[in-house]
Design brief:
transmembrane helix; mainly alpha; receptor; Olfactory receptor 10G6
Length: 232
């Protein structure tokens, strides 16, 4: 994961022809993919290979914060990439003046800040809970639902906040992405050239596939009624 995404970033940086908003956002996506894996996989591998299955409470909180910070930032970035494709296909004559280098930087920075605020909000609700046992995290990393099961207090409010917060964010941005693609599909269907339609569809198909792969698991994990089996 790290080497593959590193090659993507290196390719975009080296090739001047790729110095455009779409590939700039792709670099951010690759960086997110590298870091979100690095926040979970090393400790998980240590548990599998070295039987080192002990994690401190602080380490658990850091893992929780990192995962939701990076995951939420990725959610924002997918929406931003959909908006970029909307401008490129539906407003091609205005694209260069709207999506300037400075605007791209501000938008990318906004996704990272948004992910930070979201994760701080979620993590703050977790660390206020009393944890007096059990201390076994029945999951392969410290996620919200796994940690809530360890709390020695009523977690109904936490579960509600998690459901509403993550549910509202996921649903809002998924609708925004679908709206962008609704306009994109309508614009593509008006293109007379077969090659033009093919190029436009191929550009958007990969991004739309990734969006579906990203949102469907999130829906099953966070937006469904609680289960007695944490790993189901």
């Amino acid at each position: 994961t790290v080497s593959g995404n590193g090659l993507i970033i290196l390719t975009v940086l080296v090739d001047i022809q790729l110095h455009c908003p779409m590939y700039w956002f792709l670099c951010h996506l690759s960086l997110l993919d590298m870091t979100i894996s690095s926040a979970i996989v090393p400790k998980m591998l240590a548990g599998f290979l070295l039987d080192s299955r002990v994690i401190s409470f602080g380490g658990c909180v850091m893992q929780l914060f990192s995962f939701h910070f990076l995951g939420c930032t990725e959610c924002f970035l997918y929406t931003l990439m959909a908006y970029d494709r909307f401008l490129a296909i539906c407003k091609p004559l205005h694209y260069a003046t709207i999506m300037t280098h400075r605007v791209c930087n501000y938008l990318a920075l906004g996704t990272w800040l948004g992910g930070t605020l979201h994760s701080l909000f979620q993590t703050s609700f977790i660390i206020r809970l009393p944890f007096c046992g059990p201390n076994r995290v029945d999951y392969f990393f410290c996620d919200i639902l796994a940690m809530l099961r360890l709390a020695c207090a009523d977690t109904t409010m936490n579960e509600l906040v998690t459901f509403v917060d993550i549910g509202f964010l996921a649903l809002t941005y998924f609708v925004l992405i679908l709206t962008s693609y609704g306009y994109i599909v309508a614009a593509i269907l008006r293109i007379q050239s077969v090659d033009g339609r093919h190029n436009a569809f191929s550009t958007c198909a990969a991004h739309l596939t990734i969006v579906i792969v990203y949102y469907v698991p999130c829906t099953f994990i966070y937006l469904r009624p609680g289960s007695e089996e944490p790993l189901d």
